[in-house]
Task: inverse folding
């Protein structure tokens, strides 16, 4: 329970919005990119390299006045399946959300196969999730499997 | 788009395989019919091919369909930079079905999404070539009388050979025993071995083909290509180990047949050709009947 104080600080700082917690530090910028947070104009705070008993080192994102649809938040599941969301309303956690890996991943990462049609024409890459941990994705076009270390986010 | 296509061997289930093979035998008995009269079929070969294109065109001509298309990308707008998307959208307005070969993997799947008519994948790079697999299955069925419980030996390049991978996936449904013979550099990828293990399909790996020739019902030869080896010396050392000679067939089973997707280079010695167990040219001929079956199946034509 070592991070109670830290969590308290973060939660109390946000009046309404979403806290994304339990992000491994190395994945913070990928999460920002997948959720396209650069297009959101409300207040945001990013913290990284924070102490975490579970992850060793974690990152956290706080976004004011932003509430994600489940489908939207599931997009980060290929990078951070362990992430948790706290929905804050009037300084209180009113709901907790977990990310769930969808069966199909559309337009998040590129296919690693240089001879795949998706890397030559304007085709949105589509994958079927074949393994959940660690995540591996089978391209619905070339049928090759892309593993986590080859993810190349769009 | 809603048109039903044949892009990958996994698009079909056992019932579909059986249906196609049944139709193929009907076409073999009666190959010249009027079934495609008034239909136009496009054969788009963005990458050259001899056997596949000619056997498709023969299949269509024998059923009195008309063929449009190209055998060489040099004569098309692709050289002007036209996208595959635009080519397929346009051609699907000109014909009832598209047969295509393309050097990029996944090209046929993408085409099936943008086309308003069915697509038959006649090869997309190293990925899929489902009509080859179906004609291989038809050849096995025809020579063995069944697809069930056969000892199938695959020899040569098992790592990159798309025909090998698709044949394993399709034949897996018929309780086979597989023998895989290859140089250590070209063994079957783990993902396929894992699938076989998961489905309790027995298999073993060998480097010497003599060990398994005499216990096989089907010998499926493939080409060991020089460019697959990082060390030219390794190629020189192994190339002659994977050449089938007539003298090696003396004690093979009566019912055994030798298949090869062709083209052959030197992996089957010419002296084998006269042996009644050599079946590869018949196999290529079976491609016409199998493709007639696939075309009529996709167009919903009753025979």
Result:
């Amino acid at each position: 329970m070592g991070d109670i104080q830290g969590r308290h600080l973060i939660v109390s700082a946000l009046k309404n919005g979403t806290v994304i917690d339990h992000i491994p530090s190395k994945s913070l910028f990928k999460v920002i990119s997948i959720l396209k947070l650069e297009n959101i104009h409300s207040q945001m705070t990013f913290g990284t390299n924070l102490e975490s008993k579970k992850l060793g080192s974690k990152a956290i994102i706080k976004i004011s006045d932003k509430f994600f649809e489940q489908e939207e938040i599931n997009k980060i599941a290929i990078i951070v399946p362990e992430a948790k969301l706290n929905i804050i309303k009037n300084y209180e956690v009113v709901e907790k959300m977990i990310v769930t890996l969808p069966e199909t991943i559309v337009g998040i990462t590129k296919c690693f196969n240089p001879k795949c049609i998706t890397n030559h024409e304007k085709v949105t890459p589509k994958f079927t999730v074949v393994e959940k941990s660690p995540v591996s994705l089978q391209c619905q076009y070339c049928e090759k499997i892309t593993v986590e270390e080859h993810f190349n986010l769009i | 788009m809603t048109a039903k296509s044949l892009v990958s061997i996994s698009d079909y289930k056992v019932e579909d395989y059986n249906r196609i093979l049944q139709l193929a035998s009907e076409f073999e008995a009666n190959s010249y019919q009027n079934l495609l009269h008034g239909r136009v079929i496009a054969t788009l070969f963005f990458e050259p091919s001899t056997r596949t294109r000619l056997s498709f065109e023969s299949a269509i001509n024998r059923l009195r369909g008309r063929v449009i298309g190209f055998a060489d990308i040099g004569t098309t707008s692709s050289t002007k930079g036209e996208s595959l998307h635009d080519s397929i959208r346009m051609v699907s307005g000109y014909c009832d079905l598209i047969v295509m070969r393309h050097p990029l993997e996944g090209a046929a799947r993408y085409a099936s999404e943008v086309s308003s008519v069915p697509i038959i994948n006649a090869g997309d790079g190293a990925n899929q070539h489902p009509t080859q697999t179906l004609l291989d299955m038809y050849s096995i069925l025809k020579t063995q009388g069944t697809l069930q419980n056969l000892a199938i030996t695959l020899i040569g390049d098992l790592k990159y050979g798309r025909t090998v991978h698709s044949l394993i996936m399709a034949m897996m449904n018929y309780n086979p025993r597989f023998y895989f013979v290859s140089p250590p550099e070209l063994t079957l990828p783990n993902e396929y071995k894992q699938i076989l293990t998961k489905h309790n399909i027995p298999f073993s790996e060998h480097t010497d083909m003599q060990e398994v020739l005499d216990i096989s019902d089907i010998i499926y030869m493939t080409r060991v290509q020089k460019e697959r080896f990082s060390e030219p010396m390794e190629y020189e050392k192994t190339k002659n180990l994977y050449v089938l000679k007539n003298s090696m067939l003396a004690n093979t089973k009566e019912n055994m047949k030798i298949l090869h997707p062709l083209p052959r280079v030197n992996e089957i010695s010419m002296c084998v050709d006269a042996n009644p167990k050599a079946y590869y040219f018949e196999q290529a001929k079976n491609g016409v009947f199998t493709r007639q079956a696939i075309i009529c199946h996709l167009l919903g034509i009753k025979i």
Observations:
- Chain B has a mean pLDDT of 94.
- The beta strands of chain B are 40-45, 66-70, 97-102, 119-124, 151-155, 177-181, 203-206, 218-221, 257-259.
